[in-house]
């Protein structure tokens, strides 16, 4: 990176200067590790007997279950594989339809496509920007097997409505909570409403287990019993006392979930040790983000062209990404016009996240390009994301809100 002096267009209150033509960019990760977190990892490297499938795994799972206050928690290699397990335990296969919001990260849908299911894209609700329960109802057919609810951006989905629809039609509910640690509805943590909850500890998420990691949360105790075997190649011990410990062999493999092959989605002990410590910073970090969100909303409250997500009653929005919607139709301008000015003149490197999935070649080439999502079509083309992480300062908030306000003034005057 090269540090350049600020163009004379604006003074720079942050004192950070312009880097590669920007004053504020997205960081590669949410926050730096604390000394305690580093020590926890090093301790496992130095002292733990095994490096996988040990006490740290058990402890992390217990700590996580306590954090979310329910369900059976199983640490896994990443959230994509947690979603795959949800598909396996929902017995999703060829011929089944799975209803998935088209506005999400691609990993929400890939595991279900991989299991052979037909992906049916659901539209977003125009206010909450999460999956629209009314559109779920429209998309249900006799072949529908499951609904995937994604609490994207840290916004809670309308789980009350979704669970009622699922109960009426006998459908499984899978919650993608990759962006919603500490997100609750009436005090109940997301991921504990549906049959399965899937969490991510990728570096860009609220907490991370050395860059990769995930948690699979299961409601049904019968299924919970089968998870460790399906997670780890069907490994089990041979039953009963044996005359020679090596006869017939050291260990057995078995089938734990009728008719389906196991996987290896395991996570190592250093990652689990770190996870237990990282859990403690989730809530304090989210409090910072929630506070910074309040400041942005206050600063842009009198800019009618900008809108924010509506949060369902009783919902706790943990502000994992900072997405805004811009309506410049009154003066014939769109999101791209706004971003041009915000990025180049104010140095705020805002981006556009989560292309509607049915527009990606991956999905169109694999037969998942069909769609009927009119709300997303128009909404998405006018949404954009501001740089966001839990260390964002008041000065940076001011730079960003001044940039959005100033750019809109310029567009109106043009
Ligand atoms: C990050 C993310 C995933 C995938 O998580 P990994 O741990 O990287 O596999 C799935 N869904 C959403 C919404 C995500 O943001």
Helix content: 25-40%
How many beta-strand segments? Answer: 16
Side-by-side strand order of the widest sheet: 3-11-10-7-6-4-5
**Whole-angstrom Rg:** 23 Å
| Rounded average pLDDT | 94
For the record, give the distance between the C-alpha atoms at the N and C termini, rounded to a whole number: 34 Å
Describe it.
The protein has 414 residues and is of the alpha/beta class. The protein has 2 domains: 35-281, Aspartate Aminotransferase, domain 2, CATH 3.40.640.10; 282-413, Aspartate Aminotransferase, domain 1 (Alpha-Beta Complex). 35% of the residues lie in helices and 14% in strands. The chain has 12 helices and 16 strands. The chain has helices at 35-47, 55-68, 79-89, 110-114, 133-139, 159-169, 221-231, 269-299, 335-344, 361-365, 374-380, 394-413, and strands at 3-4, 18-19, 72-76, 97-101, 118-122, 144-150, 172-176, 184-185, 188-189, 196-200, 214-218, 235-236, 252-253, 306-307, 322-326, 383-386. The strands form 5 sheets. The chain has a 7-stranded mixed β-sheet, with helices on both faces. A 3-stranded antiparallel β-sheet has the order 14-15-16, with helices on one face. Strand 4, helix 4 and strand 5 form a beta-alpha-beta unit. The longest helix has 31 residues, at 269-299. The model is unreliable at 1-14 (pLDDT under 50). The structure holds pyridoxal-5'-phosphate. Pyridoxal-5'-phosphate binds next to helix 3.
